[in-house]
Design a protein that fits this description.
Length: about 180
């Protein structure tokens, strides 16, 4: 067996390899396990509020990780290779999630993730919102409201003001709930 920190940069049939992604995820699982059981009673009220805010930022950042994972899933045609008619169906079976949740994740990826097709790469449709989501500054619900709003704009208004409206809505997202 390989030492815990051993990472090999290539895959071989004869050698068990652990990628950097697997190591980082294992470390995250361990840190989360520790955090989930740590005593909170000794914390002062201000510290509990700080922990809540910081944990919410981490929770928000997970949406950007979902987008990166779905980029890999679609780029590798994994749903098709597994006999699924869509990425949402693939996620439903792989992760045992509701069809609506699977569809929501795919739509979020299509809006805020980087998409690849062959040698072509397209950045997020909503770049500024995707960057804020990656930093954990807004929630996935905020990002959805922003995208939904921009997509409902009349065509000419969207063409002329889409970036300005997206940026202004991000400012509101910093102080308002997503509803």
């Amino acid at each position: 067996m390989l030492p815990d920190r051993h990472i090999i940069g290539h895959v071989s049939e004869s050698v068990l390899v652990e990628t950097e992604a697997s190591v980082a995820l294992r470390e995250l699982e361990a840190a989360f396990g520790r955090f989930a059981t740590v005593a909170l009673d000794p914390c002062a009220d201000d510290e509990i509020e700080d922990i809540l805010r910081r944990f919410e930022t981490i929770r928000n950042k997970t949406a950007a990780v979902d987008d990166r994972l779905l980029q890999q899933v679609t780029q590798r045609s994994m749903p098709f290779n597994r006999g699924c008619k869509s990425t949402a169906v693939y996620l439903k079976f792989l992760l045992r999630i509701a069809p609506a949740e699977a569809s929501r994740r795919v739509k979020a990826y299509e809006r805020f993730g980087q998409r690849c097709s062959g040698s072509m790469t397209a950045g997020p449709v909503y770049r500024v919102t995707a960057a804020a989501l990656q930093r954990g500054e807004i929630s996935p619900a905020h990002a959805k409201v922003i995208a939904d709003t921009v997509e409902r704009l009349p065509e000419q208004v969207a063409y002329d003001h889409e970036d300005q409206i997206e940026t202004e809505m991000l400012g509101y997202a910093a102080t308002l709930d997503p509803r």
